[in-house]
Design a protein that fits this description.
The protein has 153 residues and is mostly beta strands. The protein has one domain: Beta Complex (Metal Binding Protein, Guanine Nucleotide Exchange Factor, Chain A). It is 10% helix and 27% strand. A hairpin with a 6-residue loop joins strand 5 and strand 6.
């Protein structure tokens, strides 16, 4: 198999290239809790207003719970009161990938970790929040792990 040929046993990015972190689903299932697996690997959604980071104000970097890739900074997080952590931008343009999601009968934009393809949530545009962008990344807490910034005393 050439370096540009996607593996037939794993998910690929929208452009057809492989995610840099590839594991058999049995390994993901063994490493993640059943709830984490459902959201990250099966594109599930956690219930609103119950996630660990929904109301968190801790400063730091949010990484992918599955592969530890850095995804969002706390400086980009805002209170949307939607029930899930909301960010107005990812840490870097290449830290997430986007897929069309028509699972609810309407088109939405799914957000996945660019390293492992784990489902994070969705991004919405034009909702009128007072943020530097016109975007709301609505992300499942269970998809994330917060890495706090060390306090400076």
């Amino acid at each position: 198999m050439s370096a540009s040929t996607p593996r037939s046993d794993g998910p690929t990015r929208p452009d057809g290239t492989e995610y840099s972190v590839q594991k058999p689903e049995v390994d993901w299932a063994a490493e993640l809790t059943p709830q984490e697996y459902h959201v990250l690997r099966e594109a599930g959604t956690e219930a609103p207003f119950v996630g660990e980071y929904t109301d968190s104000k801790t400063e730091g970097v949010y990484s992918c719970r599955a592969c530890s890739a850095e995804l969002f900074r706390s400086a980009g997080k805002f209170d949307s009161h939607c029930g899930w952590p909301s960010f107005f931008e990812p840490l870097a343009k290449d830290s997430v990938v986007y897929l069309e999601d028509i699972s609810l009968g309407r088109s939405r934009t799914e957000v996945r970790c660019a390293a492992c393809g784990g489902h994070l949530g969705h991004v919405f545009e034009g909702e009128g929040y007072d943020t530097p962008t016109d975007l709301r990344y609505c992300i499942n807490s269970i998809s994330l792990r917060m890495n706090p910034v060390a306090s400076q005393t």
